[in-house]
Amino acid sequence: MNAPTLQPQPATAGTTAYANIVDGRRVPAADGRTLDSVCPSDGAVFATMPRSGRADVDAAVAAARVAFETGPWGRLTATERGRLLVRLGEAVAARVDELGALEAQDTGKPLSQGRADMVAAARYFEFYGTAADKLHGETIPFLNGYTVAVTREPHGVTAHIVPWNYPAQIFGRSVGASLACGNACVVKPAEDACLSLLRFAELALEVGFPPGALNVVTGLGEEAGAALASHSGIDFISFTGSPEVGTLIQTAAARNHIGCTLELGGKSPQIVVADADLDAATPVLVRAIVQNGGQTCSAGSRVLIERSAYDRVAGLVAERFAQVRVGHHLMDLDLGAMINAGQKARVEGFVAHARADGLPMLAEGRLAPDLPAGGFYVKPSLFGPVPRGNDLAQEEVFGPVLSLMPFDDEADAVRLANGTPYGLVAGVWTADARRSMRVARAMRCGQVFVNGYGAGGGIELPFGGVKKSGHGREKGFEALYEFSASRTIVINHG
Ligand code: NAD
Q: Does the global pTM surpass 0.90?
């Protein structure tokens, strides 16, 4: 099997044509249709990708099935699979600048964020590569004369439906864990951000992954995505995206009687107690909503402040917020453009509603001068105090809009923090260790940070939600339990 040509081919003048990776080959959509890749920083088309349909998804699922059941992939030992993943991590790490620049162009995120995403993706491949042969089963004491072994088995063919906000990281965490377990994967990236994932699949072939182990088909959610989610040839779905599409995915999984993980949205709170170290907290409070333009599932979009400290904290946050700068991804400022025109309009709609509701705007970020007219830029905005029932207190904006809200006491803070339909991540800032542990234990969500928020990419840390934020856990060693199932073998040797 020859590896495909690594560099994509020129399409029409000024654009580059990317291809699906199916069964170890670069292939266009069966019917030849394509979609445009638009750079959010200027609105210009710079690449094309296949607009895959059912036939393309069928081919990818069939290739994965063969790889899993009869191909070389299915015969590799856990150690051999792990080595391939480590090599993939090294290949990505060696191309952080190239891939980071591609990601920045494809998503509008600042260059340094594009590079950071590649560093994290490489680390996921390394983490799961070195974990592949550490996923042990167990034995269970049973009747005399019996031995009971519980092994961990791959599901078979896993489907991965990926959003556009952190494609590289989300691919790394879910595909890395799934391949480590021995599954064969079919990935459907988001139509707005596919390119780095096609490059990952090419690099996987370069470093020696057998054909069919890792297939990537691009296309629209309602076409390729729906065809993949409902395919009778898949055994498990890993979905990261919006709660609305998550419902469709879970319904499709139920029809095929297979499992799924749903990593959905959030309205994550950071609780600031009056005794908190505000010098440490303030930059983190701002960064938690500004990073990636607020297009982060775990964005800290609500800051809950003990009433006695409200004015002081609001002043510090507003001062810092007003310094936030928005620019073209090549300018590498605090944030770039929104992913597309629809997302820009969504954010602007929330801001317009908040203004119409009379919410005080405490600060706005600044747009760099002379930005391209076609770019999808919005000004970050800070509102407070935001009433508890307001949209900005309850709904995921998925943009750089931060809500400040006062609370009265610890019980009120917990009620407020848990008082949305979501439950993904929370933060607690306090000098009181006992209080921090009490509050952390009272949060209804998958991750809690104390005196910090987000750290080191979170590769090693189990991650996932409750309620409308989804179910199942990815990241860390725990993901290996999602992408495998136990098999109990009972041996009567008495
Ligand atoms: P989205 O749900 O619109 O799309 C996600 C993926 O689903 C894309 O690949 C899309 O093509 C596909 N899709 C769309 N319709 C489909 C259908 N009918 N059938 C099958 N697939 C379909 O989400 P998005 O706008 O790309 O991402 C933003 C959302 O993702 C936010 O709510 C954000 O919070 C969430 N998110 C969650 C996490 C997490 O780990 N919890 C991480 C990142 C993003």
A: yes
